[in-house]
Design a protein that fits this description.
With 145 residues, the protein is an all-alpha fold. The chain contains eight helices and no strands. Helix 1 runs antiparallel to helix 2 and helix 5 crosses helix 8. The longest helix has 21 residues. The radius of gyration is 18 Å and the shape is globular. The relative contact order is 0.10.
């Protein structure tokens, strides 16, 4: 995802007077800018950074949604809307089958050791931001049996 796309969508939401969507996208833009400043790439923000921040924000909103009391329907609706908006921008994650295929093709020699820690160390570096860590962990555990 490109920062310019996010900013363009934020402006479109402002013009459409869609406050909730504007707030959600605006929060994403500011989180990306903050992360870019922290990493020293304020002027030229790489897409990998934008994707990483979007995934982090998605995880945060998911946690808010999970911990919100069900009787607070106003908050649940707000968090659900933010989750849905952020999910639109999140990069597509690899499926369990794709992760298993990737590991067996690229890391055949490491997977042959059946050492879960060693496999996870090698695979996580490659698949960070491309696949969910829980999915990777499940696939590696299944391969180590």
């Amino acid at each position: 995802m490109d920062i310019k796309t996010l900013q363009g969508d934020m402006i479109a939401a402002m013009k459409a007077k869609n406050k909730a969507r504007k707030d959600a996208v605006s929060a994403l833009v500011s989180a990306v800018k903050k992360a870019a400043i922290d990493e020293g790439c304020r002027e030229d923000i790489p897409e990998a950074l934008v994707d990483r921040v979007i995934l982090k924000e998605l995880k945060t909103v998911k946690e808010q949604l999970d911990t919100c009391p069900p009787e607070r329907t106003d908050l649940v609706e707000e968090y659900q809307f933010r989750h849905d908006v952020i999910k639109e921008y999140a990069p597509a994650m690899m499926s369990e089958q794709e992760v298993e295929t990737y590991i067996t093709e690229k890391f055949a020699e490491v997977a042959a050791t059946k050492n879960k820690g060693q496999i996870m160390k090698a695979v996580m570096a490659e698949l960070k931001g491309k696949a969910d860590g829980k999915v990777i962990n499940q696939v590696v555990a299944r391969l180590c049996q």
